[in-house]
């Protein structure tokens, strides 16, 4: 799965899944742009990747994926310093926990914006740039197992991730004639500093009961799937949503309200 000579952008890549995806793409030869909203975190991630890949450079670009101007600048800087972009991983996202009845409208708007609108803007820019440079590129959108199940307490995130799956399908239809592939990778629960900070032992135990493969996911599990889809091994694969969830979708999701906001109805 050699990606030598391929220029890649990974959003939300200063830590967690995005950072590991960038690491795997670099391992297989890609020239990677690291991007997130906080300058110090983006710079630190780029330095860490350069230390892991001696002699290789990771381009650091600060960008907010909810802002079209930032997304365009992300592509502009990458193209100016690296050349045409061939791989785009729309990974940036986030969530809060609340029931629909109690959810502030600003929370709904923020989560839809960073997950779904950010993926739309990244996909739009990628298709336009790849068409302009006649690059047979790859777009990989990061969804979630939550788009394939139902649980209380996460309507905004679930709706956004379900939207990503359908956005991917339409994009695959529209971009395929230009040699551009578009796919979704949907993680289950993955152990990162963020998930550990926002869960508790009871919730983690409830998640574990949903697994067919008896362990929590690791960022590397997602990075492997992304790297496969970015490679020529997946050259006739487009418009799909790959679940990388240890089998959670077979049993259903745990209840977020019971474990994270008990007493709320």
Q: What is the name of the CATH class?
A: Alpha Beta
Amino- and carboxy-terminal Cα gap? 49 Å
Number of strands: 7
Tell me the β content: 5-15%
Structural class: alpha/beta
Radius of gyration: 18 Å
- Which CATH architecture would you pick? 3-Layer(aba) Sandwich
| Strand numbers in spatial order across the main sheet | 3-2-1-4-5-6-7
Which sequence of SSEs, written as H and E, runs from N to C? EHEHEHEHEHEHHHEHH
CATH topology: Rossmann fold
Helical residue percent band: 40-55%
The overall average pLDDT, rounded, is 94
Structure, described:
By secondary structure, the chain is α/β, with parallel strands linked by helices. It has a single domain, classed as NAD(P)-binding Rossmann-like Domain (Rossmann fold). It has helices at 16-27, 39-52, 68-82, 105-132, 155-175, 193-197, 201-208, 219-230, 248-251, 256-260, and strands at residues 7-11, 31-36, 59-62, 87-90, 138-142, 181-187, 241-244. Helix 1 (16-27) crosses helix 8 and helix 3 runs parallel beside helix 4 (105-132). The chain is globular. The termini are far apart. The model has no long low-confidence stretch (mean pLDDT 94).
């Amino acid at each position: 799965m050699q990606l030598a000579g391929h220029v890649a952008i990974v959003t939300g890549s200063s830590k967690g899944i995005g950072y590991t995806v960038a690491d795997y793409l670099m391992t297989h030869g890609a020239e990677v742009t690291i991007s997130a909203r906080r300058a110090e975190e983006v710079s630190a991630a780029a330095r860490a990747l350069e230390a892991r890949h001696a002699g290789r450079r990771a381009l650091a670009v600060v960008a907010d994926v909810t802002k079209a101007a930032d997304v365009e600048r992300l592509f502009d800087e990458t193209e100016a310093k690296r050349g045409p972009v061939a791989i785009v991983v729309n990974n940036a996202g986030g969530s809060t926990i609340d029931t629909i009845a109690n959810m502030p409208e600003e929370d709904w708007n923020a989560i839809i914006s960073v997950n779904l609108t950010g993926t739309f803007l990244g996909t739009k820019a990628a298709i336009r740039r790849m068409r302009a440079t006649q690059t047979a590129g790859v777009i990989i959108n990061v969804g979630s197992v939550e788009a394939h199940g139902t649980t209380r307490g996460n309507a905004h995130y679930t709706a956004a991730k379900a939207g990503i799956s359908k956005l991917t399908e339409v994009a695959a239809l529209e971009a395929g004639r230009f040699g551009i592939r578009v796919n979704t990778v949907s993680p289950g629960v993955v152990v990162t500093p963020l998930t550990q900070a926002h869960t508790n032992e009871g919730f983690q135990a409830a998640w574990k009961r949903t697994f067919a493969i008896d362990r929590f996911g690791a960022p590397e599990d997602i990075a492997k799937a992304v790297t496969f889809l970015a490679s020529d091994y997946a050259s006739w694969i487009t418009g799909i949503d790959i679940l990388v969830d240890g089998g959670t979708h077979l049993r259903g999701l745990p209840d977020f309200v019971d474990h994270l906001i008990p007493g709320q109805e």
